[in-house]
Amino acid sequence: MRYFCAVLAMMAGPAFSDEWAALDGLEVAAALTDRTVDYEGAWQRFNASGTTLYNAGVDSWGTWAVRGSKYCSQWPPNSAWACFDVDLKVDGSAVRFRGQGADVTVGVYRSTQ
After folding, report:
1. How far apart are CA 93 and CA 12, in angstroms?
2. Helical H segments across 17-97, by residue range
3. Using one digit for the tens of pLDDT, what is the confidence trace for 18-58?
4. What does DSSP assign to residue 5?
């Protein structure tokens, strides 16, 4: 029985690193403020001033804010705000934005700011 429990514990370790925790508003702000997130083929910087720079080959400046427990962004010339739930990978290496339906974007934190 002891061997079986040890095997289960070893199997749970790697699976745990793939788990996500939903963030509240204060945690969303802490997870994004003055951080850079790398996506597949793009990156985004979340400045404390509320500006955000997204680059997928060309700079695109927008505005970001935390509203309730969601990350929200607005990109000119569009005046509408889009809001997303935010999850943090339990090992702290990545952030996930969840919009409507299957709208999910995952990024990893850049190690050097």
Report:
1. 18
2. 25-32
3. 799 999 999 999 999 999 999 999 999 999 999 999 999 99
4. H
Read off the pLDDT of each residue in 67-94 and give the average, rounded to a whole number: 97
C-alpha distance across the termini of the chain, in Å: 48
| Rounded Cα gap, residues 64 and 89, in angstroms | 21
Neighbour tally for 69: CB within 10 Å: 15
Q: Which amino acid is at 18?
A: D
Within 10 angstroms of residue 46's Cβ, the number of other Cβ atoms is: 22
Whether the Cβ atoms of residue 109 and residue 93 lie closer than 8 Å to each other: yes
Other beta carbons within 10 Å of 19:
10
Element housing 73 (H / E)? strand 70-74
User: Shortest CA distance to 113 belongs to which of 69, 51, 47?
Assistant: 47
CA dist 12 and 47 (Å) reads 36
Q: Are 83 and 67 in contact (CB under 8 A)?
A: yes
For the entire predicted model, the pTM comes to 0.81
